[in-house]
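Notes to self, NAD(P)H-binding protein:
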Amino acid sequence: MFVLVMGASRGLGLEVVKAALAQGHSVRAFARGASGIKLTHDRLEKFPGDALALQDVRRALVGVDGVVQVLGVSNRDLFGPIDLFSRATAVLVPLMISQGVRRLVAVTGFGAGDSAPAIGPFQRLPFRMLFGRAYDDKTRQERLIVASGLDWTIWRPGVLINGSISGKAKILMAPAQWRNGVVSRGDVAANVVSHLTDVAMIGQKPVIIRF
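result:
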C-alpha cells in the first residue's frame, strides 16, 4: 500500500513509519516536523503539514491507499482543554470520503470509547485525573470514525513504553477480554501495519497489550 501516516515525526507515529517501510509499504510521513525525520528510504516521502489545516490534509491524501492516524499531545497539554483528536478527525474524514480513500486506521488508547468501563476501579480515578481530558476527546474522535462509513480500525494500546518488536503483544478483540497493560511502541506499530490489509479487522476496536 501507499500509506499516509499522520503524526509521523516522533513516538508511535515514527515507529509506524519504520514498520510500514520494513513490511514493504510506501509511506507519506505527515507531521509539522516531518522535514526533521532522521530516516531516509526510497519509499519514504516526508510531508510537512498541519493535521488541522484542510489544504494540507487534502494534498496529503492525493494518491494514497490508506491512512494511519497517530496523533498525540504533550504532557503539559494534558491539564488544559484538548480537542486535537476530534478536530483533526473532523478534517480528515470528509476529505477521505470525497477523495475516495477508504481505509482508515486510528490509534487512540485503552480507556477511550466503550473500553472505558474496562478500566479497573483502582486505576479509574488517577486515570481520569491525568488523562481524562485527552481521553474524552479520543472518545469524540472514535465516534466520528465509527460514524464515517469508512473501512476503519481503531487500535487501543495500553500504557506505551519505548521498545522494539517483541512479538509477544496480545490483541484483545472481545470486550470481555479488554484490560490494561504495558506494550512497546514497536509491538503496537508492527501489529497496526501487519493488519492494514486484513479485512477481518475492518470495524474492529482491538486493545493491544503485552502484559
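- The chain has a mean pLDDT of 94.
- The domain at 2-209 is CATH 3.40.50.720 (Rossmann fold).
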